[in-house]
Sequence to fold (223 residues):
Amino acid sequence: MTALHHEERFDALIKKLATSSHGSQELGALKAFLANDLKKDREAFLLPRLAQAAVTWLDVKERIWPTPADQEKNQFPFLQGDIIATTMVLALGMAESSQRHNLWLVLTPDCDCVRAKFVRVAAVFPVYSGNKANPESSNRFGHALKLATTRIFPLPKLAGDELVELRGYFADLETPYYITHADKGLATACASLTVTGWHLLNALIQDKETRAADMAEAVAIRR
Fold:
């Protein structure tokens, strides 16, 4: 293969990559589906498809990794997309002892959950109906159910949630929080995302971190 062919092939791959690395058409189509096709059925349709019982290392280690050495090397306290309970979370400008919030969504990739010094998490907040309803939370939950913004992600009720007024949760993806390597083992995994939920979370994270509001302008700046 000639140098020209290599260059053409490389350029074609970059063009294909560019269609998804700064926000994808597929995510846009999904948002339109949730906003327009489902309408009043959106909450009942989407939430049950997002989460499952927490996936634990003990449950999957022998199925995923062939040797004890590989199993130990990949021992994880939680996975990306897990909803976890802990108060051992750090935020910029906040004293370690002042954290009272205790429900979080893990944003860091799986491999970093195992090895990284810090794991990024997002605060998770409940949403209620009836007398306990909060208009601001309900409004944000509605936007989350449409995936209308990269700032929040919807989550269903958790196992053990008994309040009939509790509709579900949303994770605030804007403010960065972190768990240190030493504190990972103190967190309790409450639920894991399904494959569907995990793909949706990753699509929003990617769109949030890498999208270009004006692609033509962004490209022109860099030329």
Remarks:
- The first strand starts at residue 51 and ends at 52.
- Residues 42-209 form a domain with the SH3 type barrels. fold (CATH 2.30.30.110).
- DSSP finds nine helices and eight strands in the chain.
